[in-house]
Amino acid sequence: MEKVENPQVLFSWKAPLRPYKKQSKLILRFYLALAFLLSLIVFFFGDKIILLPIWAILFLFYTLTITPPPEVENKITTFGIESAGVIASWENLSHFYFGQRFGFDTLTIVSQPPFFYHLYLTLPNKEVKQKVFDLLVQHLIFQEKPHKTITDKIADFFLGLLPEDKEETINPPKDIPAASPKPQPA
């Protein structure tokens, strides 16, 4: 039996469900230290029941850091966008914009008011980004500088706090002259 290609699919691509970068143990120590610090502050100056959400969020960060996302198929069809089993029709969508996180290009599609749902898609390369852009501008408004919600601002703030992973390279100090060969006695 032959597989029939759906004529309503304009473009499809496979990409990770979310941007992901394998993190070092330094990030996990940072999460643990931050949770411990917040726990101490809450324990001595606040309501102790708030400790539960702090450690639940720590567990969430831990699992999202350690677990790589699955690869999903995203589709742009004549009726809307389908990603990970969620279908958003063109009538319910308002605008879109691009961003970048962990070295991946990301596409954010925002729905109509009053709900302003956000659909986040990962784009694997520049060719896919250009093709998606060409198809989306026919149906949605493109925003070069999007208005960031409070959630986006909080996420950017916490991403700015994360320590950067730097690859260590061993270079000789520049102030020590290179050793010159000693003359051998004859």
For the structure shown, list the relevant keywords.
186 residues; alpha+beta; PH-domain like; 2 domains; four-stranded mixed sheet; 4 helices; 26% strand; elongated
Low-confidence stretches: 167-180
Major β-sheet profile: 4 strands, antiparallel
Radius of gyration, taken over Cα atoms and rounded to an integer in Å: 24 Å
Specify the number of helices. Answer: 4
Known CATH architecture of the largest domain: Roll
- Give the H and E element order: EHHEEEEEEHEH
Estimate the helix proportion, in percent: 25-40%
Strand order of the largest sheet: 1-2-3-4
Mind telling me the CATH class of the largest domain? Answer: Mainly Beta
User: Total domains, how many?
Assistant: 2
- How far apart lie the N and C ends? 88 Å
Q: Roughly what is the average pLDDT, rounded to an integer?
A: 82
Number of strands: 8
User: What structural category do the secondary elements indicate?
Assistant: alpha+beta
Tell me the quaternary state. single chain
Summarize the structure.
The chain is of the alpha+beta class and 186 residues long.
Molecular structure report:
- The protein has 186 residues and is an alpha+beta fold.
- It folds into 2 domains: 1-20 and 71-150, PH-domain like (Roll); 23-67.
- 32% of the residues lie in helices and 26% in strands.
- The protein is built from 4 helices and 8 strands; from the N terminus they run βααββββββαβα.
- The protein has helices spanning 25-45, 51-66, 126-136, 150-161, and strands spanning 9-16, 71-77, 80-83, 86-89, 93-101, 104-111, 118-123, 141-142.
- Strands 1-2-3-4 form a 4-stranded antiparallel beta sheet, covered by helices on one side. Strands 7-6-5-8 form a 4-stranded mixed beta sheet, covered by helices on one side.
- A hairpin with a 2-residue loop joins strand 2 (71-77) and strand 3.
- Helix 1 runs antiparallel to helix 2.
- The longest helix has 21 residues, at 25-45.
- The protein is elongated.
- It starts with 8 loop residues before the first strand and ends in a 25-residue tail after the last helix.
- Residues 167-180 have low confidence and may be disordered.
